[in-house]
Amino acid sequence: MPNKILEVKNLTKIYKNRIAVDDLTFDVYEGEIFGFLGPNGAGKSTTIKMITGLATISRGDVYICGYSIKKNFELAIRQLGGIIENPEMYSYMSGWDNLKFFANLYTGITDERIHEVVKLVGLENRIHDKFKNYSLGMKQRLGIAQALLHSPKLLILDEPTNGLDPNGIQEIRRFLKNIAHTQKISVLISSHILAEMEQMCDTIAIIDRGKLIEIKNIDQIRKGIMGGQKICFKVDYPNFAGKLIYNKYKLDIELAGNNVIVPCEEAMIPSIVQLLISNRLSIFGINTLTKSLEEVFLDIIKQRSGSITIT
Amino acid sequence: MIRLFKAELRKIFLRPGIFVMTALLAVILALSYFLYQPMTRNTSEISIDENQVSEIYDYFKNGNMSYSKADALSYMTSTNNLIENYRNNNTVSNVETLKTQVNTLNDNIYAFLDRVGRVISSPTGEGKEIAYKILTETLKPSVDSLVNLFSTLIDTSNPLILVNKNTAENITLSLNSINRILTTTSEPTQETYKNMQDNLNLYNISTDANKYTLNITPDIESIVDVKFDEEFLNTLQSDYYNVGMERLAVVEQQIDDFYVSIGGNYEFENSVEKKAEINELISFYYNTCRQLNEIVISKVYLKIAESYSDYEFAQLYGLEDFIRYESEQSLTRQEYLFDHNKMEYDYAVPFNFTSTSNFETNTYDFMYFVLELFSFIIIIYCVVMGSSMIAGEQNNGTLKLLAIRPYKRRKIMTSKILATMFFAFVFTLLAMIITFIAGGFMFGFESAPILCIFNATTAFEISPILLTLIYFLTLLLKIGTYILLAFTISTIFRSYVGAVTVSIFCFFATAILNLFVSSNNIIKYLPLNNLDLFKYMGGGSFTANSSIFNIFSSPILPDMSFVFSLINIVLTISILAVITYTVFKNRDIA
Fold first, then answer.
1. Domains of chain A, earliest start first
2. What is the DSSP letter of A79?
3. Which helix (DSSP H) or strand (DSSP E) does residue A263 occupy?
4. CB A88 within 8 A of CB A101
5. Among candidate residues B173, B172, B149, B169, the one with its CA nearest the CA of residue B161
6. A155 and chain B: CB distance < 8 Å anywhere?
7. Which pTM was predicted?
8. Scanning every residue of chain A, which has its alpha carbon at the shortest distance from the alpha carbon of B14?
9. Who wins on pLDDT, B388 or A311?
């Protein structure tokens, strides 16, 4: 049973006349990439700010490796590293000086460790340039470097791929997957770039208007929360194939051109194939249809509010 | 938290602005050499050296111009007269005399009114001559003597009564009006005797005079006699006047002996050393008389002021310019000198803006001047820096990265404040050392020991280096408080520019209030007026509006003392700290 690195319990944030985050509860396990999803204004950033101690907590608590943010701030935060929104550092200092500044705030971070982290994010060549001369991608990388310096158990990233080119985005993705699965560092990412989240996360939490709507493992989402998995068979005589399957299995068939779409598990594919072939049908292709995260997401939002709220 | 402090410090010293600071320091040092035009301190030391020694001796013994024995003794006489006057004053009541005279005048006017009434009512105007006679021979002179009495009593060189300045004004005006009224009567002629108008005039004159006299009567109730207990006056006589006279006798003997030792020897007559010797003795003689006179006068005033607060005292006629602190300070100084048989010119005074501390400029005065200028600059720089460390970092996003480190908010704030203060300390120390050395080569390191009068009541001698150290500490306290203020404002205002503006506004607001608000009771509480603790060491400029710096930090106002200012500072710092830490702790960052 993996450890719980982050426990959020009944987390609530109340501003003067509105509730921005309402009674949020979830856990993040060791080595897990946890995605935080939601439309703009849902409360993602506010939640992350409360977890990192940037914003005060109105109700509830946050535990990092068992330490409470409210009662044991210093011990809790020690386990955490993060980049919140744009990664800004001291522009008149070099990348190295910036990292050295942060390193000096902890005990036991040697120059070797700094070099290690610099190498990890691939900034060896430019590390002694002044921060103000860095490109956005380099700033992001330096941001990740400062977040990892002190070997935290939890990495928090708020919109980390903002402004990166596709190459950069892919690099970040591979990098995060690597540190999560090999170094067992948990990662909490908040984003609204669904395609990326889909490819990266192990678990996804969906938030809207301050409330937690769904938490699901990624496979579960892909397999379709909203109506199960579907298999698509491309055949020569779709109508006939459809009737055959319906008669035998009593499943609702959809037809789309030459495609017969059957709502069933993967395990049933061999028997369906057997059925079709024994009836002298030709099969040109078999696909597992999954709903994209985007579709699922929009479905959920639509269901909750009846329409998409644009904020 | 030391790690955090060191990290913040390193950040400060990596700023590009550090070069600006260093450049400014150099510029100020260079400029100040040209700006520095100190007024040399005046000496009361006597040095007559055009004449031969015998001539100087003769002039002293027998002359009556400045610095002669006669001139010096006139101070002693005046001191003795002062004591005697107050002794006499103890046996009479001037207020009663005043009251009696006013009442008599009143009665006389009534009587006169009565007579005029009879004259008017008689068909032949009988008795007019008598009426006029009374007017010119009784009433008029009695008013004159009343006017004289009053002005004698309120003579400020030795006030015999204490009267509120408004009351004094009223009484004087009233008396003058009566005088005027009684004088406007022209000499009556034969014809006018017959004229009814005259009678009415006389009647009007006296009614008016009566009105004025009646106005004075309640005012007089508030006047107070100046009385001293016998013991006080006896002390003045025995411990000061008599002791002084004895000392003078000794010095005069020394002068006589010295003259005998010259013995008409020509060589000695013109020798520079011998002239210096006799001058020193004469100087001592003359200044002892002066000292005594000042001591006794100060003691008298302070004794009167004992029963009043500074505010009340300022309402009294003729005494509005008396500043208790200044008077006490001067008295402490004179008494110390008198007790130790020393003169003003044996010591230096603490650094200030009105004059040099010695009789020539030296590096200490120069250093004081430069540091006062420099502190202004460094305060502004630290204000800007403090604002950027909180509001600036909040806006550009770097505060976020600092806040997610394992340090409580208050540690973050403390490390920033301390780092800024440390920076100010280093730069001020640097400025002080450089200025000291440079000034030493330009003006010299020499200085007499300094006589400090701390908080007006404690006198002590101190070396200039030690005084410099004390000054440095008070300067740090001042700068530190401004830094804390800047951090407080920066924490409250999220805008970097806003924070800087408000900080500088506070600084100038104090100056404006100092210039335009005349009620000292309010101004003395302003925190920024209490920040300069060095003014309680007894330097010259702090009780007079003699320099532009006094509008940025007021001189010592009535009812201010070292303890008052210290409490003010401690309160200010506490309140600022509480505000800063509370707001910062509960603030959502970005």
1. 4-222 (3.40.50.300), 230-289 (3.30.70)
2. T
3. none
4. no
5. B149
6. no
7. 0.81
8. A93
9. B388
**Which residues, 6 or more positions from B48, have their beta carbon under 8 angstroms from its beta carbon?**
B56, B59, B67, B275, B279, B282
A98 close to A142: Cβ distance less than 8 angstroms:
yes
Burial class (CB in 10 A: 0-12, 13-18, 19+), B364: buried
- The pLDDT, as a whole number, for residue B189 is 53
Q: Kind of pairing, strands B224-225 and A259-262?
A: unpaired
Task: Judge contact between B308 and B91, C-beta under 8 A.
Answer: no
Question: Are B405 and A102 in contact (CB < 8 Å)?
Answer: yes
Q: Which two tokens stand for residue B176?
A: 């003058």
Instruction: Report the pLDDT value the prediction gives residue B102, as an integer from 0 to 100.
Output: 84
- Report how far residue B329's alpha carbon sits from residue B538's, in angstroms, rounded to the nearest whole number: 7
Tell me how many degrees the CA angle B275-B281-B282 measures, rounded to the nearest 5: 85
Side chain identity at residue A288, one-letter code: T
Residue B154 contacts residue B318 (beta carbons within 8 Å): yes
Q: Which residues of A touch B10 (CB under 8 A)?
A: 101, 104
CA distance B491 to A6: 31
| Helices within B36-139 (DSSP H only) | 53-62, 69-91, 94-121, 128-134
B183 and B147 Cβ atoms separated by less than 8 Å: no
pLDDT of residue A17: 85
- Residue written as token pair 């709903």: A291
DSSP element (H, E) containing B559: none
Domains of chain B, CATH where assigned: 2-42+357-586 (no CATH), 84-225 (1.20.120)
- Per-residue pLDDT, B64: 78
Predicted local distance difference test score (pLDDT) of residue B271: 80
Query: Given a cut of 50, is residue A217 above it in pLDDT?
Result: yes
Q: Contact at 8 Å (CB) between A71 and A99?
A: no
Q: Which residues of B touch A (CB under 8 A)?
A: 3-4, 6-7, 10-11, 14-16, 396-398, 400-401, 403-408, 586, 588-590
Q: Among partner residues A81, A89, A106, which is closest to B398 by beta-carbon distance?
A: A89
Q: What burial class does residue A1 get, using C-beta atoms within 10 Å of its C-beta: 0-12 exposed, 13-18 middle, 19+ buried?
A: exposed
* Whether B10 and A104 lie within 8 Å, measured CB to CB: yes
How high is the pLDDT of residue B125? 64
ipTM: 0.78
Give the DSSP letter string of B182-197.
HH-PPPP-HHHHH-HH
Contact B407 A105 (CB under 8 A): yes
Report which DSSP code applies to B544. Answer: T
Mean per-residue pLDDT pooled into runs of 10, chain B (590 residues):
88 85 84 82 78 83 84 91 88 84 83 78 72 76 84 78 85 82 59 57 76 79 85 90 92 89 77 84 90 90 85 79 84 91 88 82 89 86 89 87 90 93 92 90 87 90 92 93 91 85 83 76 83 82 52 73 92 95 88
Contact B350, B450 (CB under 8 A): yes
pLDDT at B359: 84
Amino acid at B405: R
A84-91 mean pLDDT: 82
Rg (C-alpha) for chain B, rounded Å, is 34
CA-CA distance, B561 to B453, in Å (whole number)?
12
Task: State which H helix or E strand residue B549 sits in.
Answer: helix B549-552
Residue A165, classed as helix, strand or coil, is: coil
Q: What is the DSSP string of B347-410?
A: SB----SSS-SSSS--HHHHHHHHHHHHHHHHHHHHHHHHHIIIIIHHHHTHHHHHHTSSS-HH
